[in-house]
Design a protein that fits this description.
Shape: globular
Radius of gyration: 18 Å
Number of domains: 1
Largest sheet: 16 strands, mixed
Oligomer: single chain
Distance between the termini: 22 Å
Strand content: over 45%
Length: about 260
């Protein structure tokens, strides 16, 4: 999961996809009874990113940690993601931290808090279709208000790989769902096609996982290929097409949890 932020950078340009099948197509929205996020249990994982090939040098790395809790009687999941990646200007590396709160059952985004070592920060609350809070760019002296009303709620695009397991894996099934990220003013529809189980090499270990293609609904362009489980670490491998024609490879392995220690 939270293979996340890198997915938001991709605007893929691979071969066109086949039309969406009508048989076994599941159309969901945020709050749908067909989504059950309780498949996700507390766990921690480490993600490594390589560009160009699965054996290319590591370009960035982060850890995800999920804990479950309660907010005013509502069960919630709290994700903490911490990572490092090259600074945008090419000088050295930057660190970043992302804290997110979701409804533990529906996966509805509730809170988003992102910060990095360059001075960029974003704190948002999601209430229905309203996204409000503040954002501070490195050049800003003070944070600027954010208040956007979406056309419909969306699942967080940076963690779109959470959706298939929460709906349930079934070979041949097609899931159509809206996604959203803090830079979007309206939700975007995505198509998740569950192709079946397949072996995948994850950092030297052979894992049998569900292969899922994610495409934009509007033009059927591929945004990611996921290799997913219904147990920790849930996402074991991901491939994201990049605008320059290269592919970003993400591997994820379970690690010990750190929170509360």
């Amino acid at each position: 999961m939270l293979t996340t932020l890198c997915v938001l950078l991709a605007t893929p340009c691979l071969a066109p996809a086949a039309p969406v099948a009508t048989q076994d197509t599941i159309r969901i929205e945020v709050g749908s009874k067909l989504v059950d996020g309780r498949v996700y249990k507390p766990h921690a994982a480490r993600v490594r990113v390589r560009v160009g090939g699965p054996d290319a040098p590591i370009t960035s790395e982060w850890t995800n940690e999920l804990t479950l809790g309660d907010s005013a009687g509502r069960p919630v999941m709290r994700w903490v993601t911490k990572g490092t990646r090259p600074a945008p200007n090419g000088s050295g590396t930057m660190t970043w931290e992302l804290r997110q709160t979701y409804d533990a059952v529906s996966l509805k985004p509730l809170g988003y808090d992102s910060r990095n070592s360059l001075g960029l920060s974003t704190q948002l609350a999601v209430t229905g279709t309203r996204v409000h809070g503040k954002r501070k760019l490195p050049a800003d002296s003070v944070a600027q208000p954010v208040d956007v009303t979406l056309d419909q709620p969306g699942f967080f695009a940076g963690a779109s790989d959470l959706v298939p397991a929460a709906v349930g894996f079934k070979e041949g099934a097609v899931i159509v769902a809206p996604v959203w990220s803090p830079n979007m003013t309206k939700a975007e529809m995505r198509i998740f096609t569950i192709l079946g189980k397949t072996p995948i090499n994850v950092e030297g270990t052979q894992v049998v996982a569900w292969k899922v293609e994610e495409r934009r609904y509007a033009d059927r362009q591929l945004t990611a290929t996921w290799y997913l489980l219904d147990t920790s670490p849930y996402m074991v491998y991901g491939e994201v097409p990049l605008p320059n024609g290269q592919v970003q490879h993400m591997s994820e392995v379970a690690i010990p949890m750190s929170q509360g220690k």
